[in-house]
Known about the structure:
- It is a single chain.
- Helix 5 links the parallel strand 5 and strand 6.
- 35% of the residues lie in helices and 16% in strands.
- The chain folds into two domains: 6-13 and 237-325, Aspartate Aminotransferase, domain 1, CATH 3.90.1150.10; 19-228, Type I PLP-dependent aspartate aminotransferase-like (Major domain) (Aspartate Aminotransferase, domain 2, 3-Layer(aba) Sandwich), CATH 3.40.640.10.
- It is an alpha/beta fold.
- The chain contains eleven helices and 13 strands.
- It has helices spanning 19-28, 39-49, 61-72, 87-94, 137-141, 181-184, 198-207, 215-223, 227-253, 280-285, 311-325, and strands at residues 6-7, 56-59, 78-82, 100-103, 121-125, 149-153, 174-179, 192-196, 257-258, 265-269, 288-289, 291-292, 303-307.
- The strands form three sheets. It has a seven-stranded mixed β-sheet with strand order 2-8-7-6-5-3-4, sandwiched between helices. The chain has a four-stranded antiparallel β-sheet with strand order 9-10-13-12, with helices on one face. A two-stranded parallel sheet has the order 1-11.
Amino acid sequence: MRAGLEDFAVNVRARTPPEFVQRALACDIPRWSAYPDWAPAAAAIARRWGVAKEMVLPTSGAAEAFTLVARALDIRRPAVVHPQFTEPEAALRRAGHDVARVVLGRPFALEPGLVPDAADLVVVGNPTNPTGRLHPAHVLRRLARPGRVLLVDEAFLDEVGDEHSLIAPEMPGVLVTRSLTKAFSIAGVRAGYIVGDPELVARLRAEQTPWSVSSPAITVMRACTSDDALAFVRRGSASLVEARDDLVRRLEALGLWVAPSASPFVLVDTSPIRAGESLREPLAGLGFAVRRCETFPGLGPAWLRIAVRTPDAHARLAAAIASLREGKEGARP
Length: 333
């Protein structure tokens, strides 16, 4: 992202981690001379979800989890539901797999019958990046079956609610990846984890590079599964809904279609402003950074992902988009 632009592109909620995370990291610095041991993090995650420790594997962000799945499991016919975060498919292709794409059209609701019956790995985000679509848990469970691994990326589910998660005491054939990056603003720490079928988790653990999860990541995993952390997330979730509704209202007032979202961002079709063209560069010229979406399978240049901010920030962005519709690009609003 260019310096000096108002940021609607990055999907991390705040610019700095919450104070309780910063305190935990500061207090743990004297122990960083020792090699990391992720067992306490795994125990904390297991307690947070009420599952066995054997079902948990801390990872260096969710990205490592996707690489472990691609390399450790006996996969022959993987399928990825798009539009979604492209790293799971990229990891599968790097590992030499041919990947079937299940590309959803607007409004991006998932119909299990679209997934090939022969798929032995199905990857889906919930809620999905960049659409923000929340797929009902009962729909996702219909994708699980003997002989198939269901991998659900719940990176953005913290701020939606545990009732939508597929994490449970029994998860045959199911793996869930979680990221602490978004809700807790710790992208640089690289902290994530997998919860799922203990036999599958054991295979991933055997593939994992020793000490790939750093001591700072282990510290924040413990801090971010505490009661303070859960209360922090619930407060953020409550404020997110109102702020997202404000953004959606302003975009729809401009005649734009906005995908139904349960995430700290929305996906918007800007083709009524300029059909087939991206507004990313014109908006940058007006001082705003947004996420382009033509890199996501199934989307084109007219689609933008816009992060939820404050009502004042939303008003400034909406005014900038309106000026592009009116052909007034000369000055920042």
